[in-house]
UniProtKB/TrEMBL annotation:
The species this protein was found in: Thalassotalea profundi
InterPro entries in alphabetical order: Gluconate_2DH_su3 (IPR027056), TAT_signal (IPR006311)
UniProt protein name: Gluconate 2-dehydrogenase subunit 3 family protein
Xref: Pfam families: Gluconate_2-dh3
Length: 236
């Protein structure tokens, strides 16, 4: 049987429980302030074009639409676009040591969302009006898998807003400025981020399986740098 958000056999996996447990901490941090990966601005023209071409096809078009619906542009604060939430998520999937099952859940959710949207409206999610998008997201949020998927994307929005710009989001500290937050010092630069530290960088050699959770960890390496390097060698 084809899986959907409404699969009665779905159970929240442990890795997602661990990630969701950080949501309250992130919400508290944001609330108290308001009441690799290379920053996008430092990418070369070729790198930007390469990324833009990826983000302009599925599943990234749908993910971008969802993120921007969850944190839309307004005159009250910053938006998902302002904090580059989609680019942050791209970095999470392509360049950080992210668990394979987490990446698969992100992608599967896009398929399930569009499947439900087309069943309900005959249109994919990105073609819906704002009102229709709200209805569809509220519908899937009533399922365990749908609620988990939306919550995971909201966490990534918080992370894009609060993390140092070197992780892909929060350009020029726009999230911190909005929250009137003073970031710690020194801030990590490319080459000094948590997944590039010596103990972490060992997983760039080959896939590593976490013995406690049986999760396969995606290697931490710069896919764009590798791709560009191959192009330079071929030209030589």
């Amino acid at each position: 049987m084809k899986q959907t958000f409404f699969d009665s056999n779905y159970k929240t996996p442990q890795w997602l429980k661990d990630k969701l447990s950080r949501r309250q901490l992130l919400k508290s941090a944001a609330g108290s302030s308001a009441l690799a990966v290379i920053p996008y601005s430092q990418l070369s023209f070729a790198q930007k074009k390469d990324i833009e071409s990826t983000l302009n096809i599925e599943p990234w078009l749908t993910l971008d639409a969802v993120l921007n619906h969850l944190l839309p542009a307004s005159n009250k604060g910053i938006s998902a676009k302002d904090i580059r939430a989609t680019y942050y998520l791209y970095q999470l999937v392509h360049q950080q040591p992210t668990a394979t099952d987490e990446i698969e859940f992100i992608y599967k959710g896009v398929g399930w969302l569009n499947g439900y949207s087309q069943k309900k409206t005959t249109l994919p999610f990105i073609s819906l009006s704002n009102t229709e998008k709200e209805t569809v997201l509220r519908d899937i949020s009533r399922s365990s898998a749908g609620d988990n998927w939306i919550a995971m994307l909201i966490i990534n929005i918080y992370e894009a807003m609060l993390s140092p710009p070197s992780y892909g989001g929060n350009p020029d500290g726009v999230g911190w400025k909005w929250l009137e937050h003073q970031a710690g010092f020194p801030l990590p630069k490319a080459g000094e981020r948590y997944f590039e530290l010596p103990k972490r960088s060992q997983i760039s050699v080959h896939n590593q399986v976490d013995s406690k959770t049986s999760r396969t960890i995606t290697p931490s390496h710069d896919l764009l740098a590798k791709k560009l390097s191959v192009k330079r060698r071929s030209k030589a």
